[in-house]
Structure of Lipoprotein:
Amino acid sequence: MYKQLGIACAALALFACSEQPSTQEAKSEAKAPASENALGQYKTQATSLLANIREQKPAAALEQESAELVATSRDVLANFVTKYPQCKDYLDALDKAADVIPTLPLEEIESGYHEDGKLPKYSDPVCYHAKDLLVHPATVQAIAKLGFTEKTHYQDAELEIVEVIAHFDQVERALN
């Protein structure tokens, strides 16, 4: 619990200090390679999802938005494997489960994918950070499927995205 809280606090600090890209940066992103475009899209979507969770938007909207973030994460992971082929088996197994994960009970998502119980071993810690770009929004998708029936569900979803933003920072550094 304290580890997650620490990660959440660090991610919040990173998020609070981030700036919106200038027009010039946006133009340069349009000319950037696909991996950089996917990264930029992921960050934009994650930030938007976090804001919408905090506003407690309807479950159906948050489910759709988290599903879109999962789809974007798959593009990021494909690019990631190009640079880190040692992560291929680990991330391929995750990609094959991407459509199933949001349908699983939260406990099974935690043990199977957050804690890697259903994934092969990885040889490089950088693989773990990349994995979480898919697992955390898929968890939010699963929470949204439940309908946010309790106030703590919004808090849980918020922590998932705050944590994924921290993992995103590690992945972005690894790819740049």
Remarks:
- Residues 33-175 form one domain.
- The mean pLDDT is 85.
